[in-house]
Design goal:
- With 305 residues, the protein is α+β, with helices and mostly antiparallel strands.
- The chain folds into two domains: 2-113, Rossmann fold; 130-283, Tumour Suppressor Smad4 (Sandwich), CATH 2.60.200.
- It contains ten helices and 16 strands.
- The longest helix is centred in the N-terminal third of the chain and has 17 residues, at 13-29.
Length: 305
């Protein structure tokens, strides 16, 4: 077996050293030949992965945060090569959702030993693929307002700090959403398309269950109009009551479009990717990921490729 390890050097030298030591110990011990490919700032990682796949790799491993994993997945579309994940970022939401070990050593050991294959859905935006979420408003402002330095120092807490700073500064806007061809107008502060459920469980804990393999996208819109709506929403969350007047939900099985009169910043998988309009297409079961076996997270279906 040959494996291509796509590593993001911004994870830090200690993490990189730990990764290389774990690969030497577990991959070499399992007879897996491997090559480490470090990404470069602003390069098209997906295109580079596509080119390297022509050399006959049997496994591609994304070693980094959610942005790195998303970029590698973009290069694996239409390929039969599975993806392995070694979480080395700030949030690592995809790894958490797939129950992949958080520690580098354990994640590498899992990939070299007992693992199974899980097919997951993918989102297509313009000419790129993403896997977790995309949207405008509060979340995009938080993503754009959190620096690499803050994430390196504070970890996931950096996002909470940015959320406190940015939330009340986002003004409600008239937006048009089109879900599988059906249009709706909203006055909203945030519109997020979700493929993964980790973020949804934090922001919309009373909402429907969202999985990476459920064959549809979920669109959540937050419709706060005044400052008083924010404590109202938090109260509904903590009390377990739905906040139907403040949050709107829809499911899409093909496409979600978000448009607005005034251009708004768009984020996807933790990176700012442009401005509106935003069009998200669903690619069901487009990528195969190696996950632990037996699967400890009962929320994912037991599909073996």
């Amino acid at each position: 077996m040959r494996a291509l390890i796509v590593s993001n050097p911004t994870a830090g030298r200690h993490a990189q050293d730990t990764l290389r030591e774990a690969l030497a110990r577990h991959f070499t011990g399992a007879g897996i030949a491997y090559e480490v490919l470090e990404t470069q700032p602003a390069e098209r990682v997906g295109e580079r992965v596509r080119l390297r796949l022509r050399e006959g790799f049997d496994l591609v491993v994304a070693a980094g945060g959610d942005g790195t994993v998303s970029a590698v997945i973009d290069g694996l579309l239409e390929a039969s090569v599975p993806l392995g994940i070694v979480p080395m970022g700030t949030g690592n939401l995809l790894a958490r959702e797939l129950d992949i070990p958080h520690e580098i050593e354990e994640a590498v050991a899992m990939l070299a030993g007992a693992s199974r294959q899980q097919r997951i859905d993918v989102m297509r935006i313009n000419d790129r693929s993403y896997v977790l979420n995309a949207g405008i408003g509060i979340l995009a402002a938080v993503v754009g307002g959190t620096s690499r330095r803050e994430k390196r120092i504070w970890g996931p807490l950096a996002y909470w700090g940015a959320a406190v700073r940015k939330t009340l500064g986002v003004k409600p806007r008239h937006i048009l959403v089109v879900v599988d061809g059906q249009a709706q107008k909203h006055w909203a502060v945030d519109a997020t398309v979700l493929n993964g459920g980790m973020l949804a469980r934090i922001i919309y804990p009373n909402g429907p269950k969202i999985r990476l393999d459920d064959g549809h996208l979920d669109l959540w819109i937050m419709r706060m109009r005044t400052l008083l709506d924010y404590p109202r929403y938090l109260l509904s969350v903590f009390s377990g009551r739905p906040a139907s007047s403040l949050a709107w939900h829809a499911r899409a099985f093909r496409r979600v479009e978000i448009r607005c009169h005034h251009p708004m910043v768009v984020q996807a998988d933790g990176d700012v990717i442009g401005i509106t309009p935003l069009t998200v297409d669903l690619l069901p079961g487009a990528v195969t990921v190696l996950v632990p076996t037996p699967l400890r997270n009962p929320g994912l279906s037991d599909q073996i490729s």
